[in-house]
UniProtKB/TrEMBL annotation:
Cellular component, GO annotation: membrane
Name listed for the protein in its UniProt record: Polysaccharide deacetylase family sporulation protein PdaB
GO terms classed as biological process: carbohydrate metabolic process
Molecular-function annotations in GO: hydrolase activity, acting on carbon-nitrogen (but not peptide) bonds
Organism: Papillibacter cinnamivorans DSM 12816
Pfam families listed in its UniProt record: Polysacc_deac_1 (PF01522)
Domain NodB homology, residue spans: 52-229
Amino acid sequence: MKILLLKRKRFTILAGILVALGMIYAVNYPAVAGVSGTARQLPIYSVQRDQKLVSLTFDAAWGNEDTQKLIDILGKYNVKATFFVVGDWVEKYPESVKALHDAGHEVMNHSDTHAHMTKLSRDQILADVEACNDKIEKVTGVRPTLFRPPYGEYDDKVIAAIRSLGMEPIQWDVDSLDWKELAADEITRRVTNKVQSGSIILFHNAALHTPEALPGIIEKLIQDGYQMVPVSELIIHGDYTIDHTGRQIAG
């Protein structure tokens, strides 16, 4: 009898461990069937591309010290980038938003107030995103089609809400960590060592050493055969799937 109870106890413990492992796997390796699937939805972190295409992206939420410098550097190399801007930032710096648009860069949505989107209801998310869309469209004449969640935070509710607006949520697979005030050469190494075809690279418009690092990064990417395009030109339009790493794949 004691042996039987011991076996049952061991079986119960083993079953509990297997369930826990299954839950960990489901959270960390979500299978994504596509925008209409019932599995966990992910934003786009990178794109499967045969060509050597990458996107430079900049988040603008607070400062505005270097926006014109970035426009000038990108213009020197004839590179078009995507700027994800917060609605409050648009209100403070409409002239910079217009300058970005006039220079041919994409101005996309980074929320209205840089709130933690996972803490909002679906209706609050929609209202926040549309408020930012309205502000950007008022300045540029173009309504955003891409969204980057503040702090990189999201859940199924956030992603479903964004896609219900016909917008695509965008993350990144190469983080410059420029907001940590890393030295320019360290920012350059981080980016150029991790980039691959289809990468989406994250910078910030007001990070201390980004203007210093950017020319070398662009020159190295060009030297390695990469073409830099806005995110809307990098991502796949039409049928696609997203794998567990957030990589968008055609078909």
